Amino acid sequence: MSFPHSLTPPSHFTHLPWCASLLSDASWTIVPTSSRTPKPSTEDSFFAETLQSPRTIRGCLPQHTAPDPTSDPPIREVRILLDLGDGLNGYPHTAHGGLVATLLDEAVGLLLAINMRFRPKEARSKETETGINFFTAYLNISYKAPLMTPGVVLARAGVEKVEGRKRWFWARLEDGRGLVFASAEALFVEARPKL
């Protein structure tokens, strides 16, 4: 597999045994994320530019579970390995709480974006007024432990339930060995299609 600029090669993470173990699991697929690619429209500029430097997010490698064609949505969970630098701190050697919220929101956003690719063609072709498919209605976060930097963290997100245009999710930031730094519950609402 060739790796676009927006996707960090697995070798960036495999020096850590817990990362190597996750990356060796064949039931997960590595997937690029468009939010790490700078765009002329300035869309995703916070994650693609501001948070993509040697002192911010130094590496990003997303994965998703195999699609289940009988499920809505077909991809039920994502995980992202993130190599965090020390330019993200609120306190010495401790990531800012706003960054923690950003990473949880990004994990859910990635899950939504991946599932958009699996939608039927007729559903994907419907335009919205804004060009945005989903909006965050809420992201309720529980901070559980300080997220120390620099270091590698695991962001995970999964689907709780779907009702019409509403999607409920869970998300977590972990160290890969059982310590949870923060967890969240989120509601995203699908924009109404342009008529």
Would you give an account of this structure?
It is a single chain. With 195 residues, the chain is an alpha+beta fold. It has 4 helices and 9 strands; from the N terminus they run αβαββββααββββ. It has a single domain, classed as Thiol Ester Dehydrase, Chain A (Roll), CATH 3.10.129. The protein has helices at 17-23, 45-50, 97-117, 121-124, and strands at 28-30, 57-65, 77-84, 89-91, 94-95, 134-143, 151-163, 166-174, 180-190. The strands form 2 sheets. A 7-stranded antiparallel β-sheet has the order 1-2-3-7-8-9-6, with helices on both faces. Strands 4-5 form a two-stranded antiparallel ribbon. A hairpin with a 2-residue loop joins strand 4 and strand 5 (94-95). It is globular and about 45 Å long. Mean pLDDT is 88; it is low at 127-131. Pfam families: 4HBT (PF03061). This is Thioesterase domain-containing protein.
The first-level CATH class name: Alpha Beta
The CATH superfamily name is: Hotdog Thioesterase
User: Average pLDDT value?
Assistant: 88
H and E string: HEHEEEEHHEEEE
Please state how the strands of the largest beta sheet are arranged side by side.
1-2-3-7-8-9-6
Roughly what percent helix?
10-25%
Q: What is the count of helical runs?
A: 4
Protein name: Thioesterase domain-containing protein
Pfam families: 4HBT
InterPro entries: HotDog_dom_sf, PTE-AB_protein, Thioestr_dom
Organism: Coniosporium apollinis (strain CBS 100218) (Rock-inhabiting black yeast)
Task: Considering the chains and any ligands shown, give keywords for the structure.
alpha+beta, single chain, HotDog_dom_sf, Thioesterase domain-containing protein, 19% helix, 9 strands, two-stranded antiparallel ribbon, Thiol Ester Dehydrase, Chain A, 4 helices, Thioestr_dom, globular, 195 residues, 7-stranded antiparallel β-sheet
